[in-house]
Amino acid sequence: MPLFEPNPQALRPGTRRSPAPDRVPELRAGGTPRRMREELTELLGAEKVLSKISDLVRYASDASPYRFVPQVVVVAESIDDISTVLSYAHGKSREVVFRAAGTSLNGQAQGEDILVDVRRHWVGVQVLDGGARARIRPGTTVARANAALAPHGRVLGPDPASAVACTIGGVVANNASGMTAGTTRNSYRTVSSLTVVLPSGTVVDTADPAADEELARAEPRLCAELMALKAEIEADAELTDRIRAKYAIKNTNGYRLDAFLDGDTPVRILRGLMVGSEGTFGFISEVVFDTVPLDREVSTALLFFPSLPAAAAAVPLFNEAGALAVELMDGNTLRASVSVAGVPADWAGLPKETAALLVEFRAPDEAAREAYERAARDVLAGLDLVAPVASVENAFTRDPWRISGYWRARKAFVTAVGGSRPSGTTLITEDFAVPPARLAEACAELLDLQSRHGFDAAVAGHAAHGNLHFLLAFDAADPSDIERYARFMDEFCKLTVERFDGSLKAEHATGRNIAPFLELEWGTKATDLMWRVKEALDPAGVLAPRIVLDRDPLAHLRGLKTIPSVEPIADPCIECGFCEPTCPSQDLTTTPRQRIVLRREMMRQGTGSPVETRLLEAYGYDAVDTCAGDSTCALACPVGIDTGALMKEFRHERHSPREERTAALAARNFRAVEASARLAVAAADRIGDRVLESVTRLARRAVSKDLVPEWLPQIPGAAARRLPRTHRPAAVAVYYPACVNRIFGGPDGDRGPSLPEAVVAVSARAGRPVWIPDDVTGTCCATIWHSKGYRRGNELMANRIVEAAWGWTAGGTLPLVVDASSCTLGIAHEVVPYLTEDNRALHAEMTVVDSLVWAADELLPRLDVRRRVGSAVVHPTCSMRHLGDEEKLTVLAEACAEEVVVPADAGCCAFAGDRGMLHPELTASATAREAAEVTARSFDAHLSANRMCEIGMERATGRDYGSVLLALERATRP
Q1: What is 612-676 written as a DSSP string?
Q2: Rounded distance, CA 319 to CA 463, Å?
Q3: Distance (Å, whole) CA 183 – CA 249
Q4: Which of 272, 757, 887, 945 is found 20 to 30 A from 116 (Cα to Cα)?
C-alpha cells in the first residue's frame, strides 16, 4: 500500500442516519448482476459496460423529480452497439432506455433495466448548404450546434432554456421548443430528415430516396400498419379535426398523430412520429435540421406589472407588434433569480404579486428594428407599469450586456427557484399550454389552485405561445405531502383540459408524471390509437416502457426521489445537469451533478450499509481525485454551485495530520522547494525522459498517485536562474512572475526571450515599464495548496503573498501584474477566505491585474505591430473564464496573426497545476475534442497564457503552445 494512500472512510458522512425509503437496497451493493454483466461484456467489450453500483447510482437521476436505478449502463459507440443491445434485450426480454444529457424534467432519461448512454460518443455537427441545413449527432448540445451555425448567420429553430446542456437527441425526442420556437420553429416543423434505429434493429434514413422501398422489404408488417392507421384516421373527420386543433397550440403530450395526416408514405409518417416519441419508438442516431435566420438586430425590455394576470393581459399586444419572444416571470421567480450573476440585488425586495414580461424583437436589419421599436413604444404608452425597486427601468434597450442579464434571469427559472427551495424538498416542474388569448384567465386560475392546495409556486413561461411553467416543492419522504401533490395534480389536469382545452405538456413531453393523464386530454379513441402505434413499432415493448403510455393511474407517484441534505455548498442542487458539458472529467469518471447525486445516495443509506461502503470505495478516484478543481461548474450553474470547491474540501478531509504538516512545511520553505524543483527540471535534460518516467512511476506506487506527479515528455526545460533586471523608480506596475514561470522555461526550441524577459521588454517598449521585486522567489499564489486541500499550507502562503505584495506595490498604489491567469485568479480571489482580518483589509486595497489585461489595455494601444504570422489558434483557460478576460487573449492574438481561431470545443484542459501529471488520463479525456479540432489543420502559432495549460495542450495535440505575450513581443520587436 502506498505510504500516503487516502482513506476512503474519511468521507463517510459523520452523522448517524436512518435509511431513506427510496435508498438503493443492500442486495444491489454488488452492482449489475454477474450473468448480465458477463453477457454484455462479451458482446460489447468491458469498456462499454458500466456495472459498479456507483455507476448505476450516478446514472439514476436526471433533472426530474424521479429516480430509477438501472441494472446496467451501456456506453454505446456506434449503431452496431445500439443494434447489439436491442438484439440482446429482445432475446432476454429486457427493457432499454436511451439517455443523453439527462436534462429531461419528467423522467424520460431513466430506466430500470438497461440504460444506454448516447451522449459520450455521439457528438458532431456538419454545416450544410451554407448553413441552411445542419447534420447533427444526438449527443451534441444545442449551444454547440448553434456555435457552428452562427458564422453562417443561421440558428436552430428549437431554443430551450437548457441549450447549454440539453442535446439534440433529447430535443427531437421530446419536441422541446423554448422561448421562440412556438409551433412553427420546433423540431416537428424544422427536422428535414433523421436516421433511426428501430427496436428490431432496422436502420432507416428518412432522407434516402429508397427508404420506403427498403423499409417495406425489411418491415412489411410495420409499413402496412402505419398506412392502415393513416387511412383510419383520415376516414374519421371528427378525429382529424381534433388532431389539428390539438396542435394549433403547443402540445407534446402523447404521440404526434398529425404525422399520419402530414406524411403520405410509411417513412414520412415515421419521420413525424419519431419527433416527440421520447425514446419509445427507436434511437435517433442523426438529425438533419432546416435552420432559421439568426437575426442579429435586437431590442429587448423587461417590463414590470402589478400582478401576473395584468402581465398576461399585455401579451397579445406585443404578439401583434411582432415580438419574437414574450416571456413571463412572476414575483417568486424574480426574487429567486437574485442568486444569478448580474441580476440586480434589489429584486429580492420585489412584492410577491409583481410580475414581469421579457419582450424581445429581433430583426435582420436596422430599419426593421426601428420599425419594431416604434410599435413597441405604442404598446408601452397604453400599459400601467410599475417600478417597485430602483433598478427597474421599464424600457427597451439594445445593450447586449443588459439583454444578456435579462435572459440569464429568465433561463435560470428552474435552477434559481429550485435552488432556493427548502432543504430536503423535491422539485416538480409542470408545463402546460392554453390558447394564448386565455392566458390571463389561466394565470388567475392557477394562482387560486395553488393557494387552495397550500403551494407557493413560482410561475414563468413562454407567454407569447400560451405556455406556462410552474414549480412545486414538496417532501417526497412524507406520504401526506405526496398525497397533497397528488390531489393538486388531479385538479390541475382537469382544470387545464376541461376549462381551457389545453395541453398538459406543451414542450417538456409526457414523461412519467403526465402519462396517467394522457387519456384525460386526448380521449379514449386517440389514446387507443397511440397504444396501437406503439405496438406497431415496438411489439415486444422493449423501449422505454411507462414513459409515454401507462395504464396505472398512480404512475406519476412512483419513483419520486427524496433529496437528503448534503454539504451546504451542494445542497441547493436540483440535479439539472447544466454543469456537465463544462466538466473536464465528464467522459472519464463523474460530473459535478453525479458527484452530488452519489453523495446524496450515501445520505439515504443507513450508517455503515454495504451500499454506502461501495460508494465510498469508488468516490475517491471517480469524484475527488479526478476533479480538476477548475470550478467552471460554478460558472455554468445558474445558482453558482461550486462542486470543485467541495471536492477540494473532501481532499482536505482525507489528509492525515502528517500530510497537513508536511504541506505546511513545504509552504514555509518554498524558496528551497522552488529551487529544488528548478534544478530537477534542469537535470531532466541530462537524465532523459525514459529514466524519469520510470523513477516517478515507482515513486507514485510507493508514496501516492495523488501526491507524486508522473514525469511527462512534454515537460519543458528549466527557466533561467535569474529574472531580468528591472528598476523600481520608473515602474508604473509591479510585475510578479508566477512560480511556474520561474521554474519552467518556454516551449522547447524557442530561442527567443523567456516570458519574464518578454513581459519586461514589451512593457518598456510601450512606455509602461514594470518592476520585478528582488524577493519574489519563495512566494506563490497559494494555488498549489488550495487545489489539493492543504488548508494550513494554503493559509500560510496566502497571507505571505498578500503581505509581500502590499509592500511591493507601495500599499496598493501600483497594480500587481501576474503572468499566469490561474495565479492571477489565486491572488485576486482565491486567497481571500484564508487571510487574516488585517491582511484581508490590505488585499482590498490592492489591484491585481492579469497579464492579458495589462497587455491588451495598457500595452497594445501604445505599440506598433511590425509583423504577423498567418494563423494562430488560442486556448482560453478556465481561469480566464473566471476572470472574465477571455476576449483579451483573442485581442492580443489578433494583433499577432492574420487569422485567429478559437476552437468551438475549447474547454478546461484539466492540467490544473500538476493534476495533469498526477492523473494524465484526466487531461487526455478533457482535451480530446479540442485537440481533434486543433490538429485537423495547421497553424503558425498556438497561444495561451498559462504555462501548465500550455504543457497540457502540447501533450494533447503534439503542437508547441506558448504565451501570447511572447507572440506580442515578437510581433512588435523593432
Answers
A1: HHHHHHHHIIIIIIT-----HHHHHSTT---HHHHHHHHHHHH--HHHHHHHHHHHHTHHHHHHH
A2: 9
A3: 7
A4: 272
pLDDT at 456: 83
Is 205:197 a contact under the CB 8 Å cutoff? Answer: no
Task: Look up residue 149 and give its amino acid.
Answer: L
Q: Quick one: pLDDT at residue 711?
A: 63
Residue whose cell numbers read 427524496: 562
- Distance CA(781)–CA(388), nearest Å, equals 44
Q: Count Cβ atoms within 10 A of the Cβ of residue 471 and give its class: 0-12 exposed, 13-18 middle, 19 or more buried.
A: buried
The closest of 596, 855, 888, 864 to 735, measured between CA atoms, is: 855
Sign of the torsion angle spanned by Cα atoms 788, 794, 800, 803: positive
- What's the pLDDT score for residue 1? 47
Look at strands 941-944 and 962-963 and give their pairing: parallel
C-alpha gyration radius of the chain: 29
pLDDT of residue 892: 98
The amino acid at residue 597 is: V
What are φ and ψ of residue 687, in 5° steps? -80, -40
CA distances from 570 to 64, 564, 864 (A): 17, 11, 50
Q: What pLDDT score was predicted for residue 613?
A: 95
- For residue 730, the model assigns a pLDDT of 92
Cβ atoms of residues 68 and 110 within 8 Å: yes
Low-confidence ranges of the chain (pLDDT < 50): 1
Cell representation of residue 231: 387511412
Please check whether residue 816 is in contact with residue 733, taking contact to mean a CB–CB distance below 8 angstroms.
yes
pLDDT value for 686: 67
Rounded distance between C-alpha atoms, residue 763 and residue 772, angstroms: 12
Contact 389, 616 (CB under 8 A): no
